[in-house]
Design brief:
By secondary structure, this protein is mainly alpha-helical. It has one domain: Four Helix Bundle (Hemerythrin (Met), subunit A). The chain is built from seven helices and four strands; from the N terminus they run H-H-E-E-H-H-H-H-E-E-H. The strands form two sheets. The chain has a two-stranded antiparallel ribbon with strand order 1-2. A two-stranded antiparallel ribbon has the order 3-4. Strand 3 and strand 4 form a beta hairpin. The protein is globular, with a radius of gyration of 16 Å.
Length: 162
């Protein structure tokens, strides 16, 4: 992977996170706790989505580490919908937005450190993503950036901001 490609992914990840954080910081406490997604009998608020993004980026970072070390990421047949449905139970009472945003920032720093450490050969190594099947490490970084944007759009739609 060329240095240009590392810069490109760093910029994508940084911009997507910046846009998400700006959106979240613009919301009132009522908006943060208002339902924005109704799926599979569950209601998700903006705060729930932040908790989901925290858990997700940690998980994808672990996947990248496993792929780099030749280990399996998730077993074939892993049920992502069931995993996501259990988020509220696993997360428990959510901390204030400020704490979650600090944690998101810390995780993103680590994500970018790993991105910077990848050798040219490692970008094409593959592992199983829980939703998209077998993908490369490069695709994992694309997915991470897109995930922030996707859920920022969910929040905007759910709150009638678009």
């Amino acid at each position: 992977m060329s240095a240009d490609k590392k810069v490109e992914y760093t910029e994508k990840l940084t911009q997507a996170r910046s846009e998400l954080v700006n959106l979240l910081n613009s919301l009132s406490e009522e908006q943060l706790q208002s339902p924005v997604i109704h799926s599979e009998g569950q209601t998700w608020t903006a705060l729930d989505l932040v908790a989901h993004l925290l858990e997700n980026e940690r998980g994808m970072s672990i996947h990248v580490h496993k792929i780099r070390n030749g280990r399996e990421t998730v077993p074939e047949g892993f049920d992502l919908e069931k995993w996501n449905a259990g988020l509220k139970e696993r997360a428990g009472t959510l901390p204030p937005l400020k704490e979650m945003l600090n944690e998101l920032a810390q995780i993103r720093v680590k994500t970018l450190e790993v991105l910077e450490s990848l050798s040219d050969e490692e970008w094409s190594l593959q592992g199983r993503h829980p939703n998209r099947g077998v993908v490369s490490i490069e695709q994992y970084y694309e997915i991470m950036a897109g995930h922030d944007t996707w859920h920022a759009n969910d929040i905007k739609k759910g709150l009638g901001l678009v």
